[in-house]
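Quick one, tokens below. Sequence please?
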């Protein structure tokens, strides 16, 4: 007599949210390891290349042959790239969420141009040349342009297309002003010719300490805004129903973008495409949830910026190509290819 065995009940699959959380944490750890590798490359690679052992001794031993280059030159440069990358990446993510436009970017919408115009004015007409002196002008310029683009684009009724057009118009006008000032003042042109293309080469310890507090406040503010911005994406009425305040969220987002972009631009110059490409591509991995997207942006944007700086040193050796040129040359075709193939997430 045969005995029929009852079928074994299927094993319960783990909840989808738990699987996504594990994948997100694992991917973020991998991104952090990549960032660590890029930081090491930033310290080791340049006109003169050092091994990791020489870099380690150069960081810790004042009598090491590599101390002057590694500790006093490359370390501030790499740290500045880290801070500026965090600022530009988070600013791009917040701006794309605020405008509901996956192609929004602090550079393309004129925020960086506003900071640049204010700094050029401070350098040319007021004689201010230190980061500590003109960082406040950068904040003022970025804040004014943020409000101007928002107003010209239609305010609360703004559409992604109108904001993009308003930003492009303001961007063109401000860069025309910057170019005119530089051409009319040769001394200003000599002082600003590397800054206006975006560069980490002039980084000093004082530059890093000068912008770090503003980047830190901007990072904290974006962390607080992640959930309200998620709610705002559903519309003002739904956001209010979820406990968010649309007006306060928009103001907070503009303040965060102003702090992040103003500090990064004051220290490095107007670097474009980092704040556009990184959030745009990260969204394909994390989805639109800012609680996942923003941490990835904060890690992968510095990877992009420091990596571009290292690439400029290698390609231009024994001189170097400024990081702003590298991001523009590398980022432009990549972005156009993504748009042309219809892979723009949310577009």
């Amino acid at each position: 007599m045969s005995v029929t065995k009852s079928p074994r009940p299927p094993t319960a699959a783990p909840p989808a949210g738990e699987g996504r959380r594990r994948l997100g944490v694992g991917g973020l750890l991998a991104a952090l390891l990549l960032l660590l590798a890029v930081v090491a490359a930033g310290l080791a690679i340049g006109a003169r290349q050092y091994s990791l052992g020489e870099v380690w001794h150069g960081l810790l031993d004042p009598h090491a042959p590599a101390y002057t280059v590694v500790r006093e030159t490359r370390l501030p440069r790499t740290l500045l790239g880290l801070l500026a990358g965090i600022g530009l990446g988070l600013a791009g993510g917040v701006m794309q969420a605020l405008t509901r436009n996956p192609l929004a970017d602090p550079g393309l919408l004129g925020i960086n141009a506003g900071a640049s115009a204010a700094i050029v004015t401070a350098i040319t007409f007021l004689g201010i040349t230190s980061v500590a002196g003109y960082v406040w002008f950068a904040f003022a310029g970025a804040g004014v342009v943020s409000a101007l683009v928002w107003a010209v684009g239609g305010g609360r009724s703004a559409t992604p297309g109108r904001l993009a057009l308003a930003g492009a118009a303001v961007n063109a006008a401000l860069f025309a002003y910057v170019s005119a000032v530089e051409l009319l003042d040769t001394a200003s042109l000599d002082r600003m010719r590397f800054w206006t293309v975006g560069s980490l080469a002039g980084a000093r310890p004082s530059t890093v300490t000068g912008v770090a507090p503003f980047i830190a406040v901007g990072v904290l503010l974006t962390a607080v805004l992640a959930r309200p911005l998620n709610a705002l994406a559903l519309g003002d009425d739904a956001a209010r129903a979820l406990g968010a305040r649309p007006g306060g969220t928009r103001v907070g987002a503009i303040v965060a973008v102003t702090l992040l972009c103003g500090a990064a631009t004051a220290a490095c110059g107007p670097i474009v495409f980092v704040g556009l490409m990184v959030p745009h591509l990260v969204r394909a991995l994390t989805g639109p949830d800012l609680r996942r997207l923003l941490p990835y942006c904060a890690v992968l944007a510095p990877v992009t910026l420091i990596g571009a700086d290292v690439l400029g040193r290698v390609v231009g050796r024994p001189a170097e190509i400024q990081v702003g040129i590298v991001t523009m040359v590398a980022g432009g075709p990549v972005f156009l290819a993504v748009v042309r193939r219809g892979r723009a997430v949310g577009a």
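Residues 39-340 form a domain with the ABC transporter involved in vitamin B12 uptake, BtuC fold (CATH 1.10.3470.10). The CA atoms of residues 170 and 211 lie 25 Å apart.
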